[in-house]
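User: Hi! I have a protein structure encoded as tokens and I'd like to know what sequence might fold into it. I'm fairly new to this, so please keep things simple.
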């Protein structure tokens, strides 16, 4: 059933008007009905136009950064399917690099649910792989609370993120609780700054793994390109650990501290956003830093 002309607005009103003209032209009694294929093509063209024009009215919980958390959240009542793909390059053995290891790869995937204009919930699982193994690493629950409504996106925006990660096997990292404090400044459509501080507290399972506390500190700056669909960003990341490094496993970095700098390119249109870039390990500050961490993040609002 077509929407009422009184209820259609903006691009949908234009599409409705075009579709009405197309339909009336083909059902005129004086016109021979010799081209049903043309009528179908006209209707499909109008519907395609409506979907393209109408997509600009939707918003997604965009991310302009690779690792730094931002203050944008999914709108209330919406659900996103979000994925992160990334890898850490191989660490070559050398006299000052005793933590040599093969390259590692991860996939993080989750439905992200907008519970309100302040609260977002994600239910992800994470897969880790190396050159000779692939394993399910964790199941998680992540809650994000934004102190001010998502409709107020200017000025300072504080946000807290708390997550629980359940390890699947003894080959995984230990189960953990993670907490992050995020502070941003500026609208996403302008010069935008983000600062993060977080800590991950290891839990007693699996029993055979060390249980350190890991801290992370970072931030970034992003700026939109003309047109508003594309953004460029640059960010810094530091990771430290409170106890001696954990034994090397196929799913965990083998040494700390780690320092990185990098940048990303992001694109948003309608219900889709994509962010891609790489972090570069500052190996001069710490030989434990992998040389490169390329990362791809994307999401589509369902």
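Assistant: Happy to help. Inverse folding works backwards from shape to sequence: for each of the 302 positions I chose a residue that suits the local structure. Here it is:
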């Amino acid at each position: 059933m077509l929407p009422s002309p009184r209820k259609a607005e903006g691009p949908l009103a234009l599409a409705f008007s075009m579709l009405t003209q197309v339909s009336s032209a083909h059902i005129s009694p004086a016109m021979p009905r010799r081209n049903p294929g043309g009528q179908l093509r006209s209707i499909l063209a109008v519907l395609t136009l409506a979907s393209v024009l109408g997509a600009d009215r939707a918003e997604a919980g965009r991310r302009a950064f690779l690792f730094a958390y931002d203050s944008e959240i999914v709108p209330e009542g919406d659900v996103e399917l979000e994925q992160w793909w990334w890898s850490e390059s191989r660490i070559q053995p050398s006299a000052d690099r005793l933590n040599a290891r093969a390259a590692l790869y991860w996939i993080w995937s989750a439905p992200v649910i907008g519970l309100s204009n302040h609260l977002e919930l994600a239910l992800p699982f994470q897969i880790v792989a190396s050159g000779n193994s692939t394993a399910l690493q964790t199941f998680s629950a992540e809650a994000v609370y934004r102190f001010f409504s998502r409709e107020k996106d200017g000025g300072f925006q504080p946000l807290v993120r708390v997550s629980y990660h359940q390890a699947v096997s003894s080959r995984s990292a230990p189960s953990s609780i993670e907490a992050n404090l995020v502070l941003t400044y500026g609208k996403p459509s302008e010069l935008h700054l983000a600062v993060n501080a977080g800590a991950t507290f290891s839990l007693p399972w699996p029993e055979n793994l060390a249980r350190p506390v890991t801290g992370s500190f970072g931030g970034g700056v992003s700026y939109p390109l003309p047109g508003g669909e594309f953004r460029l960003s640059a960010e810094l990341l530091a990771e430290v650990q409170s106890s001696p490094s954990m034994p090397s496993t196929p799913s965990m970095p083998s040494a700390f501290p780690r320092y990185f700098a990098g940048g990303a390119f992001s694109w948003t249109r309608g219900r889709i956003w994509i962010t891609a870039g790489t972090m570069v390990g500052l190996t001069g500050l710490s030989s434990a830093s992998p040389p490169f961490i390329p990362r791809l993040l994307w999401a589509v609002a369902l």
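A useful reference point when you look it over: Residues 1-12, 22-34, 46-58 have pLDDT under 50 and may be disordered. Feel free to ask if any position seems puzzling.
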